[in-house]
Amino acid sequence: MYDVIIIGGGVVGASALREAVSYGMKALLLEADDDVATGTSRANSGIIHAGYDAKPNSLKAKFNVRGNALCYELAGELGIDAKRIGSLVVSTKEGLKGLEDLEKRGKENGVDVKIIRREEILRIEKNVADDIEYALYAKDGGIISPYKFTIALADNAVINGGEVILESKVVKIDNNGGKFTVYTENGKSYETKIVVNSAGGHANDINAMLGDEIYDTEFRRGDYFVLDTKEAKNISTVLFPLPDERGKGVLVAPTVDGNVIYGPTSIKVESIEDTGVTGEGLDIIRASVTKSYKCPNYRNVIRVYAGVRSIVGGDFVIKWSDKVDNYFILAGICSPGLTSAPAIGEYVAKEIADRLGKKEKKKLIPNKRAKHFASMSVDELNELVKEDPRWCKIVCRCEKVSEKEIVEAINSPVKATSVDAVKRRARAGMGRCGGGFCAPDVMEIIARELDIPLTAVKKGGKNSNIAVSYVKEDGIDV
Amino acid sequence: MDRMETICIMCPMGCSLTVESDGGNISVKGNTCLRGKVYGENEFTSPKRVVTSLVRLEEGGVVSVKTNGLIPKSMIGDILRTIKDVRVKKPVHIGDIIIKDVLNTGVDVVATSVRE
Amino acid sequence: MYNYDVIVIGGGSAGMSAALEARKNGAEKVAILERDSRLGGILNQCIHNGFGLHYFKEELTGPEYANKFVKLVDESDIDVYLDTLVTSMTKDKKIVAVNPVDGVMNMTAKAVVLAMGCRERTAGAIAMPGSRPAGIYTAGMAQRLANIDGYLVGKKVVILGSGDIGLIMARRMTFEGAKVLAVLELMPYSSGLKRNIVQCLEDYNIPLYYSHTVTRAKGKNRLEGIYYAPVDENRRPILEQEKYIECDTLLLSVGLIPANDMALALGVETDPVTGSMAVDERRETSIEGIFASGNVLHVHDLVDNVSEESAIAGKYAGEYSKGVRENGRPYSVKASSGVRYALPQKVYSGEGKVKIFFRVGNIYKNAKLVVKSGENVIFTKKYMILSPGEMEYVLLDKSSLSGDVSIALEV
């Protein structure tokens, strides 16, 4: 019998799991896909928002501001990077009023913001567009990898006693008064006192299983360009235009791993699964980016991607169910959801702890920070290669990722069993060759580590096997 | 078949050829040189190819192979289907004969890579 | 311990030729640094034939061609470092390289030959819309998995791009039991060899659609199909005529990019058209003692030319390491009027002949190539046909050089 089962392995679910574990709860996270962070948490801007944008006194404002502090605080013990590079909302002369509104909102939310003029802007960000006169500067804005964050939270929960079970889509939940029985697609079932719905775009599906309210949900897709690390020298902060009614607008930002992104769009789609990039979306980005940034360089694009977020009304849904006892609902966690995640997890776990009468929070064992060839010193590498030569066998040449790092990624607390899962942890395949050279090698390493045939190695998700068969297995129709 | 359309591969011109036969004579149209005429006639009467493919190794994996001469184009499929079921043991060296005189063509299937 | 006269980065056809030639021309200590676990480079997975017709007067498959050079390297005293990646390099030829046996090595060289080859343009780099499921790969990755490892990446295949890699893979996939449904080509012509159009597509009734492109991919975790459409004169898709093909695999053959990132970061002079290093006739870049050859310099069609070019680079790298410097009068080489680029971008006065490679930007019929040096026309040739997919060359007498060289088409 679990104290809590959390349904959905996105950044919020992983954060809630870790916080639950810190109260000593017996906690389980069930994730439908074959890795955590494969939904909204996988494909977004990776921004740690400062918190000036959210409406004062909303849940978004409260959790954004608290989450902002936590992201930087936790990064160290999670073994990941959270970079406080600052954010700028830039405008021409005409936009000053809009910036002043944001500044006012920011101050009400308790955020350190100020309006600066072109001269000072150029000292911080040299490539703003030529007609930019003013900017709102928030020194606590920053960047984080959304999937590494999720993975680190989940790994940390697991090394501290939590459980994560992948490929466990929840199909039915029985409510037996004092407990729930949660059934998964692969025929297993688990009992628990409390259920947390952190299923993201599928939140309504879980609500339906318990006869709870179905939210009127809007889904919006954000398309992105990813630029080669060669572009990193051209941008230092998170650069926003003035926001409009659809959202914060198309930004330009570095990523923690050294790339640059342009995006997102805000295009209404039918479902959370509509993650296909469209030409129209990319055209919108091309047209919008020049408002704030003077040197976009599409010849250095190495990838395009898109993510979909769920919007329920104007604010987050973070509450105990009105209809079902001991059932906690999270829905509509769109921007600033990533930033807010550690604060939401903290809140959810405290709510559950109070209900279960658990008072003490224990100090968690921190994650061991993964070693990366690309950032180690020559001396360190020469020592390590004696222990294990695979530290110096480079598999991903574009990003300089060693075989040993890939093996460690596969054997993480939450195991990485697909090429994409390895990519998210070890970065192999994220370079300019798009994995063209290294994917077959990564596949071989996965096959060896998991003791499975190469034909069983997946890219990521059901039926995503890369090598579908041996050659000549089928009839040759010539 | 009494009519064939193809591209001449004798030079970068890539003339589009139409080759026809009335039972006795073969006529080539579209060529701009004599080599093209000869190519068209040969392609029509007896097109030949070298086949390059793979043979599976007993230990797993594959080794690349080729026919060490031209074979009739119409036999490509049969040759591939013959190669399909062959298994070879390592070590394999370039030039090793994998199938001697494949399907009575007088041509061998030989290994083109090293597998040790 | 790691101090060499010449270090060659890359052990494919370019690197092997360069190293062998450097060894014969003054360099005593020569090393090849190769990131794969054997020499041969991309040739190891090019199991089709058509290699060596010029260089060896024989028609060989890729591995057979490579093997001829591997044997020569094995028989020589050239040091070969396998599984070795160069992680950084400076202008004064200090190279940091790493492998599982030696760990991190600080190497020095008097001369360096860059021979790293190229990489494939990806779906991401062309910003291809749609989903990003399993089933979308570059043609080269599918080639590696089939020809080296023995696996098929799918059964119902569409290929985008009719360059030689795309055409070759159409036949490969067909031979190994897959069905290739179509080849889509953005341009109104193919950049591949005519021979491959006939022997890879026509022979197997695989349709080729010129002036078409993929508009988006469909499929969540696995490709289910692709939408495609004809393109207009600006190569933009005409979406009203979009159609759908059900398939589980899309192979991309949409261009090769020289893998010259490390060299460019050193600040070498580049050719704006090739996007790669500008070199003189000895294949020396603008940084003294750093030479380049093969696909890292400009993408070739025939490996025979790679071997020839790399022999030049290796010879002069070897001589450079012994203190021999060029002292002829330099003349720039510029391409214009239909000629997209010419390489080398600099030649010298002196004796003998010099070969200048060039590519045109479009298909030209009955065009006259005019080569001038200063004001003088020093060479002309009439071509029945010139196409972007076929690299050409002119052989010039150095004695005819008296001014900067221009290569242009008179149509």
Structure description:
- The complex is a heterotrimer of chains A (478), B (116) and C (411).
- With 478 residues, chain A is of the alpha+beta class.
- Chain A folds into three domains: 153 residues, FAD/NAD(P)-binding domain; 155 residues, 2-Layer Sandwich (D-Amino Acid Oxidase, Chain A, domain 2); 84 residues, Orthogonal Bundle (Arc Repressor Mutant, subunit A), CATH 1.10.10.1100.
- Chain A contains twelve helices and 23 strands.
- In chain A, helix 1 runs parallel beside helix 8 and helix 2 packs across helix 8.
- The longest helix of chain A is centred in the first third of the chain and has 20 residues.
- Chain A is globular and about 60 Å long.
- The N and C termini of chain A lie far apart (60 Å).
- Chain B is of the alpha+beta class and 116 residues long.
- Chain B folds into two domains: 43 residues, no CATH class; 60 residues, CPE0013-like fold (Roll), CATH 3.10.530.
- Chain B is built from two helices and ten strands.
- Chain B has a five-stranded mixed beta sheet. Chain B has a three-stranded antiparallel beta sheet with strand order 1-2-3, covered by helices on one side. A two-stranded antiparallel ribbon of chain B has the order 4-7.
- In chain B, strand 1 and strand 2 form a beta hairpin.
- Chain B is elongated.
- By secondary structure, chain C is α/β, with parallel strands linked by helices.
- Chain C is 20% helix and 36% strand.
- Chain C has seven helices and 28 strands.
- The model of chain C has no long low-confidence stretch (mean pLDDT 96).
- Classes of the chains: A alpha+beta (478), B alpha+beta (116), C alpha/beta (411).
- Chains in contact: A-B, A-C, B-C.
- Chains A and C meet through helix 7, strand 18, helix 9 and strand 23 of A and strand 7, strand 8, helix 3, strand 11 and strand 15 of C.
